[in-house]
Amino acid sequence: MSSFAVTSDAFVAHAPAKVNLALHVTGRRDDGYHLLDTLVVFTEAGDTVTARLAERDTLTIQGRYAQGLATDSDNLVARARDLLRRLAGTRPTPAVALDLDKALPIASGIGGGSSDAAATLRVLCRVWRLDLDEEVLRREALALGADLPMCLAARPLIATGIGERLAPVVLPELHMVLANPGVGVSTPAIFKALQSRENSPLPPLRATSSMANLVGWLGSTRNDLEHPAMSIAPDIGDVVKTLTANGAALARMSGSGATCFGIFGSQDEAATAAAAIATARPTWYVEATRTIEREQIHGAD
Fold this sequence. Notes:
This protein is α+β, with helices and mostly antiparallel strands. Helix content is 30%, strand content 27%. It has helices spanning 76-88, 112-127, 134-141, 148-153, 187-193, 211-218, 226-232, 235-245, 267-280, and strands spanning 10-28, 34-53, 58-62, 96-101, 157-161, 165-168, 175-180, 250-253, 260-264, 285-290, 297-298. Strands 1, 2, 3, 4, 5, 6 and 11 form a 7-stranded mixed sheet that branches. It is globular and about 55 Å long. Residues 1-7 have low confidence and may be disordered.
């Protein structure tokens, strides 16, 4: 594999929002990690990671939610770069300039940081022309967080274990509104408030091309973190009620919150609801979006 010179060519990777349509907590390991059974989708809404060859490694962050994010080696994007460089071994990994456009709220239950790290791994594999085994990359990426394997997959799936065991699924395209009230929630505090850690797994999921059928199935599932999160941040309940009042066929919190999602019957319905909610709640993060099948990377080879 040959290295290549410093160039202005850039690769751009989408870091999609991860939405837990259902999340069942089924146990806890001896090391403290909780066992999950979760149905996950990814959306057109997301952050963006741009990478180009440079004279030295740099990381810049821009966008609506850039404020307060560190650009040093503790940032998950920088940690993903350094992890991939170690995995590359003796293969060339020249310096890169990374730019993160942060459009998603921080620590909000939709996998923003993990998806940014996953996008960084994907885009740098292209920039550095690394052909790494996907299973190896997912296993090693667990060092960055339990959400990394599913964010690397970036497609509809059921994740079990601590999130590392993945089973791809086929789902209908979903039109959604994501909404976050702008309140901070602590994931450890939410798990501490969880009354039961030994809950039933997801019921069997049958293949369907119908949004209505999927919503019906979701009605038999839960997010086990929703009630403890609402006990800590009651505004989350307000978000769910607001999405429902604006026509969502199903509204629920994603992950450990505070972002919630509503599923709508069409793109127009989602856009209308998002506009109404954003007008009524101007301080909230509100975005109409739809689910995707695979992540995207753009740029010249």
